[in-house]
Specification:
about 15% strand; globular; single chain; two-stranded parallel ribbon; alpha+beta; about 180 residues; 4-stranded antiparallel β-sheet
Amino acid sequence: MRDIAFCTSAFAHPDTFIYSEYMLAALLWALVYADESYLLVNRAPLIYESGVRWEAERPTGQSACKGGNGQERFLGVSQILEDGVADCEDVASWRIAELRIGRGTHLKGPPPRAGHPEVTEVPVPWPMMPKGPNVVPGFFKREIAPGSWLIHIVVCWPNGYIEDPSRALGMGGEA
């Protein structure tokens, strides 16, 4: 099994938004745990030292899901290293995974809550004790058109610090 597709009605229309947020939380934690597993058994650089840069994901027009447009892929560490680019959920999940296993705790991105005044933290779904800081994914959302939302994923530290790996890796201009 090389490629896994989750086909859901998440973010299909405004009526599914609450369901969609729960689905996003589950998928983010699945990616964090997949990245933790990868980092525990493979040699990989720290994300900020990897040469990876942020790049917006664009629809491919191809999807494993009926009616899908290939808009969103959740990439694991090996795929990110292979591609050299990734978007917010990919880089935030890698960063959370490396912090949770105790790597890269000396590195931080932009100042606390920079540009993210209303972050929704995604609590740990079941007890999995990290060896490093107990960071969790978070997201903020902004309606960009009626019924169309921009979702951005960040790293939430226990002390309230919001780290944005996407910004540190080039989103919005120079890192």
